[in-house]
Amino acid sequence: MTKQHRPWGYHGPAGEAKVDWELHPDTLAVRAGLARSGFNETGEAMYLTSGFTYNSADEAAASFSGDTDHFVYSRFNNPTVAMFENRLAALEGAEAAVATASGMAAMFASVASVVAKGDRVVASFAMFSSCYVVLSEILPRWGVEVEFVHGNELADWEAALSKPTKVVFVETPSNPMLEIIDLKMVSTLAHNAGAILIVDNIMASPVLQKPLELGADVVVYSTTKHLDGQGRTLGGAILGSKEYVSEYLEQFVRHTGPAMSPFTAWTVLKSLETLSMRVNRMNDSAFTIAKFLAEHKLIKQLRYPFLTNHPGHQVALAQMSGGGTTIGIELAVAEPAVFKFLNSLQVIDISNNLGDSKSLITHPASSTHRRVGEEIRAKMGISNSLVRLSVGLEHPADLIQDLEQALAKI
Ligand SMILES: *Cc1c(COP(=O)(O)O)cnc(C)c1O
Q: Which architecture does CATH list for 76-271?
């Protein structure tokens, strides 16, 4: 059927384009992974099929034993999903990628495929609340020991990683406090403890941060965020070495079934073509808006990694190419006035998503981080006066005007 047909179990190599030089990421974003059918279509095809047929029973048998590169079943892989995986792997500089049905399916599979009863996981505290539930409630029920540390405290990491550990899991920048964790430092300590380092890179996207280049072994995405970036589909992806995929992930996802749908894969595949344009523009606008808000008298504290008052500023400059598309805004007023501010916005929508072309704002304590409870929120630094702004593709002047008029109403 196609020249670049991929079997279910084979997800690389990064970058399919056959040229004599190393292509830039912007070129890979529109070219990598492309597998044309016999019709030679320009746009990538969407293969809405659950299964595949064989010319003979012998071909079927060979396909199931992995001796041919024939697709066998869309729970294992699908041509459109494979195009997405190969393109994302090329952008990330990873040997292999596995797409999943949501960011949480990716996060869960990335850790659960590696650990067994009695194994130790060490994770940073500041993280997305569903990831926290997986690590603090679900995996411990299965006999996995999980220890949390403060992600920017070297002494905490050293103590936690003085014992043999199987997985280290971190989110940087963290959602919603934008805490920055030094990935080079943590990867060295993790490897010395025998652990693999898994990084939730959702907030930065591959445009602003490349964890594999900083020593991480595995990168996890929610494609729901910047990768789709237009609020349409839910999805996820796990990237790492071929060895990680074949040793841990492949059997796990094949049999537990968190497969991404071909429709989602097609949507996100096409979205990757504009990813760097979108993220860079949103990042520039976020920086502009962060500088405006930092001066406002109703803001108690502004959290943005590329502002000098951010505790992780130096590390952020060293490992990120931009401060990101979200801003943590700690208002100088208490909850009724915080809600009044949100309710007064005329352009920016109240929504818990992020990385979208539409600017979205949320109150984490009552939405995304409601589930973890007050005590854990306090440890994560999430107060009731904190709102998280995800800056979209609107003109930054309109966003500033919207924030200004809403702040004037409280
Ligand atoms: C959204 C998000 C997730 C979960 O992704 P879903 O696609 O919603 O399942 C995990 N981690 C972080 C940091 C997120 O922002």
A: 3-Layer(aba) Sandwich (3.40)
**C-alpha 1 – ligand 1 centre gap (Å):** 35
CA distances from 138 to 6, 121, 141, 212 (A): 34, 13, 5, 27
Return d(Cα 407, Cα 410) in angstroms, integer. 6
What is the tens place of the pLDDT at every residue in 31-56?
Answer: 998 888 888 899 999 999 999 999 99
Atom of ligand 1 nearest to the CA of 223: 7
| Distance of alpha carbon 216 from the chain centroid | 14
The residue nearest atom 3 of ligand 1, judged by CA position, is: 103
How many angstroms is it from 160 CA to the middle of ligand 1? Answer: 25
Please state the domain extents for the chain.
76-271, 275-408
Dist. CA 354 → ligand 1 center (Å): 9
**How far lies 370's CA from each of 24, 290, 398, in Å?**
41, 25, 30
Distance (angstroms) between ligand 1 centre and the Cα of 147 equals 21
Sheet order of strands, 145-149 included: 96-100, 236-240, 218-222, 196-200, 167-171, 120-124, 145-149
What CATH class has 275-408?
alpha beta
Q: Does the model's pTM come out above 0.85? A: yes
The strand pairing partners of 299, in sequence order, are 331
Q: What is the DSSP letter of 106?
A: H
Which atom of ligand 1 is least distant from the CA of 202? 13
Q: Whose CA is nearest to atom 4 of ligand 1?
A: 103
User: 228-270, pLDDT tens digit by residue?
Assistant: 999 999 999 999 999 999 999 999 999 999 999 999 999 999 9
- Taking CA atoms only, the protein residue closest to ligand 1 atom 5 is 103
Ligand 1 center from residue 111 Cα (angstroms): 15
